[in-house]
Write a structure and sequence with these properties.
The strands form two sheets. Strands 1, 2, 5, 6, 7, 8 and 9 form a seven-stranded mixed β-sheet that branches. A hairpin with a 4-residue loop joins strand 3 (about 60-65) and strand 4. This protein is globular. Helix content is about 20%, strand content about 25%. The chain contains four helices and nine strands; from the N terminus they run βαβαββαββββαβ.
């Protein structure tokens, strides 16, 4: 099992890229999983539903099972967020574990960057950025490889998939 990340500041299009990248990778007969980090509060449950009521009643974990999927909700209860290294063992074995977010994690990742958003790049500030996918490669200001990350056209999903597979690192367990 290997790991590869997609990072970038809010609004850069990380999820949009992943929505296009995942079918490209699964089309190559690869089993793909994903861990997504959010800086916002999340709730996959809805008020009034049994699982929500039981979680609110004090359960530390609630596992919800349906005909098509299951989800484990774990309440942090004021504890710090787990690290990526603590979360990975919860994932089943796959060919490639994609990570959205965890931009400070030291694992290989591609940065999604759009000059039009007016935000600085992560490259140079955060570890592991080995590539930059942008809709305007002329605006990317990083040094050229090998000193800087490889630059890829954001619309070239096949090239980004090749890049991810070539640069993915073995997962620690």
């Amino acid at each position: 099992m290997k790991i590869f990340g997609v990072a970038g500041r809010s609004g850069m299009g990380k999820t949009t890229l992943l929505e296009r990248l995942i079918p490209e990778l699964t089309g190559r007969r690869l089993r793909i999983s994903l861990i997504k980090h959010s800086h916002k509060p999340i709730d996959i449950d809805r008020p009034g539903k049994d699982s929500y009521r039981l979680r609110e009643a004090g359960c530390a974990e609630v596992l919800l099972l349906g005909h098509e999927r299951w989800a484990l909700m774990h309440e942090l209860g004021g504890a710090p967020e787990p690290t990526l290294e603590q979360l990975v063992p919860h994932m089943q074995t796959c060919d490639l574990l994609l990570i959205e977010g965890f931009k400070g994690g030291d694992f290989p990742k591609i940065e999604v960057w759009r000059a039009s958003e007016g935000q600085p790049m992560l490259w140079g500030e955060w570890p592991g950025v080995v590539g930059v996918a942008s809709d305007d490669l002329n605006a990317v200001t990083t040094p050229a490889p090998p000193a800087g990350p490889l630059r890829l056209a954001l619309q070239d999903v096949a090239a980004i998939a090749d890049f991810a597979l070539d640069h993915a690192a073995p997962v620690w367990r």
